[in-house]
Write a structure and sequence with these properties.
The structure holds two protein chains of two kinds. Chain A is an alpha+beta fold. Chain A contains 21 helices and 15 strands. Helices cover about 40% and strands about 15% of the residues of chain A. In chain A, strand 14 and strand 15 form a beta hairpin. The chains are: A alpha+beta, B alpha+beta.
Chain lengths: ~575, ~200
């Protein structure tokens, strides 16, 4: 992360006491004293122009007895990150909340409280978010152990050389595999969390003289066909109009980050597939970038091209799915969905032939990719991006884009302004549909994206219709990128050095981010030189994009919420992690 | 406005419907339940109906397709099974969900370890089909299978695969992955030749 010297002097001259550069080896950015955090963050946002808080997470430095909160801020006009951190003792960790400066921190601070137990003073609604009230402890703390704990890190000795085979379920029979907090009985427990969830909803405001009516609370989900998975919204309604809305998530939570910290660096690669299972190649990409940054290696030319081709194919297949699902949500029952799935199917066939799996690709390795293209695949990709996909996108345009029903349902609904979108840390198509031409591939180029000629798709209304159109635009732009890539892909090696199953990762921190199909996908990895990462955090775009769900929905009708959610395009595997 | 967009959109759907029948006539009798028809329906030229009717029709899997590892054995002159595995444990160490258990065998007389597995278990309920074991095995002893129809009535009893269940002949591997098999055989022959040449030089 490059910081300009003027910036350093500006921050340090302004806050000589509170801000110190992070001197630890392999680390970058600034350490900010918690007392001055709000002040410094406001300065960073208003005077230095870092108005986009991309990622917020905590790290438990158990040996030092400290908790650290790490912030990655960017300028919405592009460029590298400004990383700042604040430290607090492990006992009763508490730092000021940044929601007042960066509203996009809301869900991320709740996540850090839930998983690490860091309190954020002044947070408007600091409740658990991914776990439930009957969960004992904060699982990402380094001294927290899961009920099926075996060792601090893989590989486990019991597998080899000991080889005592057993089934996991026999060791942890149902009923025994859960810890409850002291004094907690699940049989007699009444979900007080519900009251807190409903209590957090804002009340309706009636101007003087208007008719005061009763509001009602409606739950959508967790089992609801419109929510694309196990997702729940609690909404307060005045008539049919939404007064306030809160998402309730975590039903698919599996503590991906704790699993990641137990895994070896390479062993974590297939787990990233399972985050956003519709675009596993992008997930691989982000994780590989972060670890490669730590290791200080770059893949050979051909591997870079293969990565770009695969990542863009993933984007196309993901957007086709998003468009199909959005139309389903609007009530266009399954025909558009299946038309979109046809093209996605052809892309998945390519993935299957190249990687061995349709969705769980596990294709990227540190310093390269797993295998080269088999015979006959490049011509197939070429046919797809030169002929079939452009033709089919035109068909889809005629079919959906001009349909009056779609336009009536989507135009002017769920509007998010550019200022709101930046402040709420929205990412990807949602951000660009609001008129912010921010695309990591252009704003902070990674891999070889700076070589390709493509336009950053941007639309200006910020409504559902624009979010749909922008996905159509991006499919066409991705086709353009792949066209250039398949024409210029060089021959050569696909892996830097020898393939290794135990990689040596020097101590330090790295933040690798890619423009995933759903938005900026970031991986924050801290290594202490051991075979397992010390901290592994995922900046999940579909999780953070949910921050914007309430502002988009308030004032709209309850039926529109379904379409608004569809236009954000969430995948619960990534939201809940 | 005035619904022209909807009508045009219906036209696209109607075209899709008509194309199905046009292709049915064009490929009379060859479109369904023939390998050629399945190949056509997954090609970039396809139009109209797309569905492959599993289980009557099955999509052929590509060579790289991976599903549940298996162990390879070769047959020696007397028809005895010779396992390729040396129980080095790399697959077990690289396995992300840690579903491979290996018991090393020891010589019954001397008690010293010998390079062969006494037992080899894979919990296929836990296996995530990532293929890292096959990728990093230095002896080409563990490979990913193509058989994806694994439904059983009692997973508690039947899904912890032991060595007997995992072992498959090299000839089977050669049929499911001919290109990989040819490459690996060539690489091994080259390594053998290099070793022989080195020996001859000494």
């Amino acid at each position: 992360m490059e910081q300009t010297p003027t910036l350093i002097s500006a921050l340090e001259t302004r806050f000589p006491e509170a801000v110190t550069p992070d001197q630890r080896k392999g680390y970058s950015g600034y350490l900010v004293h918690p007392e001055n955090l709000l002040e410094v963050a406001t300065f960073i946002r208003d005077e230095l122009g870092y108005d986009y808080l991309s990622s917020l997470t905590g790290v438990d430095y158990l040996p030092e007895g400290k908790m650290e909160v790490v912030y990655h801020a960017y300028q919405s006009t592009g460029g590298g990150a400004l990383v700042f951190k604040t430290q607090t003792p492990r006992q009763n960790p508490e730092v000021p909340s940044l929601v007042s400066v960066y509203p996009g921190a809301e869900l991320q601070e709740r996540e850090a409280w839930d998983l690490l137990g860091i309190r954020f003073r002044g947070h408007p609604d600091l409740r658990r978010i991914l776990l439930w009230e009957g969960f004992a402890g904060h699982p990402l703390r380094k001294d927290w152990r899961e009920p099926f704990y075996e060792d601090e890190g893989k590989p486990f000795k019991s597998r080899w050389p000991e080889g005592r085979a057993y089934r996991i379920e026999d060791k942890n029979p149902f009923g025994n595999n859960v810890d409850y907090p002291a004094g907690f009985d699940p049989e007699t427990w009444l979900p007080e969390g519900e009251a807190a969830l409903y209590g957090a909803l804002a009340q309706a405001v009636y101007p003087d003289g208007s008719l005061k009516t009763d509001t009602i609370i409606v739950n959508l989900g967790p089992q609801h066909p419109s929510t694309h998975g196990v997702f729940r919204m609690a909404a307060r309604l005045d008539g049919e109009t939404i007064v306030d809305l809160k998402p309730a998530i975590g039903y698919l939570h599996r503590n991906h980050e704790k699993i990641g910290e137990r895994n070896t660096f390479l062993g974590n690669m297939p787990f990233t597939d399972r985050l956003d299972y519709l675009s596993s190649m992008s997930n691989n990409f982000g994780y590989a970038l972060a670890v490669e940054k730590l290791m200080g290696i770059r893949p050979p030319e051909r591997a870079e091209y293969l990565r770009v081709i695969m990542a863009e194919l993933t984007r196309i297949s993901n957007h086709l799915m998003a468009i199909g699902a959005l139309l389903n949500d609007l009530g266009a029952y399954f025909t558009p969905m299946l038309y979109a799935l046809e093209e996605r199917e052809l892309i998945l066939d390519i993935f299957e032939a190249v990687t061995g799996s349709r969705m769980m690709c596990n294709y990227f390795r540190f310093g390269g990719v797993a295998r080269d293209l088999p015979e006959g695949i490049l011509p197939k990709i070429r046919q797809l991006v030169y002929d079939r996909l452009p033709r089919k996108m035109d068909d889809l345009d005629v079919y959906i884009t001009q349909s009056e029903i779609v336009r009536h349902r989507c135009e002017g609904v769920g509007v998010l302004t550019a200022e709101q979108a930046i402040a709420l840390s929205m990412a990807g198509p949602v951000l660009r549909a609001s008129g912010v031409p921010y695309d990591v591939r252009r704003a902070d180029p990674y891999s070889i994206y700076d070589r390709f000629d493509f336009d950053v798709a941007v639309r200006y209304h910020g409504d559902i219709y624009d979010r749909y159109l922008i996905r159509m635009d991006e499919i066409r732009q991705s086709c353009r990128i792949i066209q250039q890539a398949v024409d210029t892909i060089p021959e050569g090696r696909i892996q830097e050095g020898k393939p290794q199953y135990q990689v040596r990762v020097p101590p330090g921190e790295a933040y690798g981010r890619v423009e995933g199909p759903k938005g900026e996908l970031g991986f924050y990895v801290v290594s202490n030189g051991k075979p397992n990462p010390w901290r592994y955090h995922v900046r999940a775009p579909s999780f953070i994009n949910l921050t914007g769900l309430a502002p988009m929905s308030i004032g709209n009708k309850i039926a529109d919420v379904v379409a608004i959610l569809g236009s954000i395009d969430i995948v619960l595997g990534e939201t809940d992690r | 406005m005035y619904g022209f967009g909807v009508i045009k959109g219906l036209g696209v759907a109607f075209k899709h419907l008509i194309e199905t029948y046009l292709d049915d006539i064009r490929l009379w009798g060859r479109r369904y339940r023939t390998p050629e028809g399945i190949e056509y329906r997954r090609s970039t030229e396809t139009r109209g109906v797309f569905t492959v009717q599993y289980p009557e029709e099955k999509l052929p899997v590509p060579e790289e397709f991976r599903f549940i590892p298996f162990l390879l054995y070769e047959l020696d002159e007397n028809g005895n099974r010779v396992e390729r595995c040396t129980s080095c444990g790399i697959c077990s160490k690289v396995c992300p969900p840690q579903c491979i258990w290996i018991v090393r065998s020891t010589d019954p007389k001397t008690g010293k370890p010998i390079p062969a597995p006494a037992e080899f278990y894979i919990d296929v309920d836990v296996c995530m089909n990532c293929g890292l074991c096959a990728e990093y095995c230095p002896f080409d002893a563990i490979k990913m299978d193509h058989d994806y129809e694994l439904a059983v009535y009692d997973r508690q009893k039947s899904n912890l695969f032991n060595k007997e269940k995992l072992l498959k002949p090299v000839s089977y591997y050669a049929t499911i992955r001919p290109v990989n098999y040819a490459n690996e055989t060539a690489a091994r022959a080259a390594a053998e030749a290099a070793r022989a040449a080195k020996k001859a030089n000494e």
